[in-house]
Amino acid sequence: MDRDGTRTDTGTTGRIVDAARQLITLRGYNGFSFADVADAVGIRKASVHHHFPAKADLAVAVVEQSRSTIGARALEFESGAVGALAALHGYTAFWERCIADGSASFCLAAVLAAEAPSLPPAVTAAVRAHFVDLMAWLTAVLSLGRRQGAFAFADAPEDEAERFMAAVYGAMLSARVFDDPARFQRMVRAFVRRLVP
C-alpha cells in the first residue's frame, strides 16, 4: 500500500506504471517514450509493449491509479472515520509532503491537463474523470463541513470546491516554478484558514 492509500502492483506492470508516473510528472506525456520507461524499469522496450500496447494505454493506467486514490479517500470520508476539516487537511498535507520530499512535485493529472489539446482522446477522458472525481469529493467535504459548522462560505459548495482546487493547483505551480516547497504550504494553509469561521 502506498502512503497515499493506493495499492501498488510490485510486479512488472506496477513498476512500469510507477516509472511512467514519474516520467509524466517530470516531462509530460509528450516528453517520454516507451524506451525511457524500459530504461527506468530495467526491461526491454518490447516488454513494455507487452503490458501496454500503446502509450495512451499506459497513460490511462497511470491516471486510473491516481483516481483510485480519490476513491479510497471518498470511502474513508463516507464511512465517517474522518471529519470534514481533517479530510481537507489530510488532502493538503499529502501534497505538502510530496512536494517537500520531491516524490511528486506536481499532480500528474494537472501535468496531463496542460497538454490536453495534444493528448489522445482516451487520455483526455481519463484526466477529465480524475478532476470530476476530485471535484465531487471536495464538494462533499465542503458541504459536510459547512453543515457541521467547520467551514463558513457564502457560495454553493461546488463553487467553493472549484476555487479550492484552483488554489491548490496554483500553489503547486508556484512552488514548482520558484523551486520553493514552503510556498505551497503557505498559500494553501492561508486558503484553508479563510474557510474556517
Automatic annotation (TrEMBL):
Annotated InterPro entries: Homeodomain-like_sf, HTH_TetR, Tet_transcr_reg_TetR-rel_C_sf, TetR_C
Q: Where does this protein have coiled-coil stretches? A: none
Q: Which residues bind DNA?
A: 33-52
Q: Name one Pfam family in it.
A: TetR_C_13
Which GO terms label this protein's molecular function in UniProt? DNA binding
Q: Where is the HTH tetR-type domain?
A: 10-70
Q: What is this protein called?
A: TetR/AcrR family transcriptional regulator
Q: Give the species this sequence originates from.
A: Lichenibacterium ramalinae
